[in-house]
Design goal:
Order of helices and strands: HHHEHEEHEEH
Shape: rod-shaped
Structural class: alpha/beta
Largest sheet: 5 strands, mixed
Mean pLDDT: 79
Oligomer: single chain
Number of helices: 6
Radius of gyration: 48 Å
Distance between the termini: 93 Å
Strand order of the largest sheet: 2-1-5-3-4
Low-confidence stretches: 74-86
């Protein structure tokens, strides 16, 4: 009998030899642990992938929420300058003296234009031929010429009476005395109805709606 056999036990329970038998851990528990770890990892990957898909299809909604609501962005956009600027204080035709000068070889055009401007309320100054600097040198319908101080006042007002007229300034002092030079392509002044509409639009420009910021 071996020394490893407990007292009182023999027969089939007798242990022979001088070494303990090697005991193996049950393999079922190891497989169970590995299966649980794999399941948790798979669930984590599935959850992460779902969140990524949601973020893609919603355009990063969580970031937009963190940055604050933007639905009222357009309403807070600053109005354009033209929407807040009052109507321009332009001189009336009766406050503007127009010198009508013919820069073409055709006679009678200056008087024709001057008579029509007088009917429309403008004061008429000199009527005659253009100076050598402009005579036969205005290729278009005509030119309105005046002081720099008239560039945003008398000149655009007179310009409504002749569509396509060039605008030029010189060194004269008066802001209310301007020249209308008749060009080689002149046929007639703009008809009164269209001229009045252009003058009204000049005095009361329509407000331009401001665009919303791009990040709204």
């Amino acid at each position: 009998m071996s020394m490893l056999t407990p007292p009182g036990m023999g027969g089939q329970y007798r242990i022979t030899g001088d070494k303990y038998p090697r005991m193996r851990r049950p393999r079922g528990r190891r497989r169970l642990v590995l299966g649980l770890v794999a399941s948790v990892a798979a669930l984590g990957l599935i959850g992460w992938g779902t969140l990524q898909l949601i973020d893609v299809f919603t355009g990063g909604g969580s970031k937009a929420t963190a940055a604050g609501p933007k639905s009222d962005c357009a309403s807070k956009a600053s109005p354009s300058p033209s929407a807040t600027t009052a109507a321009k204080a332009l001189p009336k035709p009766g406050q503007i003296t127009v010198n009508v000068l013919n820069a073409t070889p055709r006679s009678g055009l200056a008087k024709q234009a001057a008579d029509e401007l007088r009917k429309r309320g403008f004061r008429i100054g000199d009527i005659g031929n253009a100076t050598k600097a402009y005579d036969k040198k205005i290729a278009g319908a005509g030119m309105v010429l005046g002081a720099k101080s008239a560039a945003q006042a008398a000149l655009p007002v007179l310009g409504t009476q002749l569509a396509g007229a060039q605008v030029k300034t010189d060194a004269r002092a008066s802001a209310t005395e301007v020249d209308l030079l008749i060009g080689t392509k002149f046929t007639a002044l703009t008809n009164k109805q269209e001229a009045d509409q252009a003058l009204a639009a000049l005095a009361n420009p329509s407000p331009t709606p401001s665009s919303s910021p791009k990040d709204c």
